[in-house]
Amino acid sequence: GGKGANIVFEDANIPAAVGGSAFAIFHNQGQACIAGSRLLLHEAIADEFLERFIALAESIVIGNPIHPDTEMGPLTSKMHLERVLNFLNICDKEGNKILTGGKQPADPALQKGCYLQPTVVEAKPGDTVFREEVFGPFVSVTRFKNETEAIALANDTEYGLGSGLWTNNLQRAHRVSDAIDAGMVWVNSYKRVHPGSPFGGVGKSGFGRDLGIESLNEYTDPKAIWINYDANIPPFYPRP
Length: 240
What we know:
This protein is α/β, with parallel strands linked by helices. It is about 30% helix and about 15% strand.
C-alpha cells in the first residue's frame, strides 16, 4: 500500500503541476498503490493551484472504460465503491471540507456502475483521509509554509512507496528527494515506471524491489564457499 505525498512548491510550473497531479491521483481511478493521494501545497500558490486543479478534475470524462472518449472508468467493485464512499462519511464527521466531487455521477447511464466523481477534500495531518489509503479518485489537500514543514508532512505516514515534488529549483529537488522516506520520488512528474528502474517502498509499503537490476536478486540463491589454498592452516589454538 501507499499514501503518496505530492508536493507543489511556490516556484513550480503551475500548469504542469496541475496536470501531473491530476494524473497522479485520477489515473486508473486512483486505484494504484503509488497514487499521489496527499496533495501538499505551498500556501503562496495554493489558491491558484486549487482553482485550476478543481476545474480540471470536474472536466474529467467519466464513463465506460472501453469507450474512446472516457478518461476515468469505474472502481473495481460495488464493495470497494462503498468502502470509498465511507471515507466521505468520515470526512463529514471530522469536518473535512469537500472542495469538489464526493458523489456518484448524475448521468443515468452510470447509475448502476461503480463510478465516483473525482474528489478533492481539505485535510489536516491527523485526519483519517490524510493517514489512511482510500484507493480511489480521492485526494486530500494540505497547505504548508516552508520546505521543512513540507518534508515533515510528506513523512508523516506509515507508508513509503511513491512521492512526488514540483519545483524549478534543482538544489531543492535533490534536497527534498533525499529527505523523503519513500522508495521512489518523482520530480516534476509522477507515476513514471521503467523496467530498468527499481520499484518498491519502505515502511509498511514493503521491502525488496521489482524491476531494475535489483529485482534479479529476488530470483537468486547466493551461496558462499570458502576455500583455503594453503595447506598450512594457522592454528586457532597455538601450542608450543
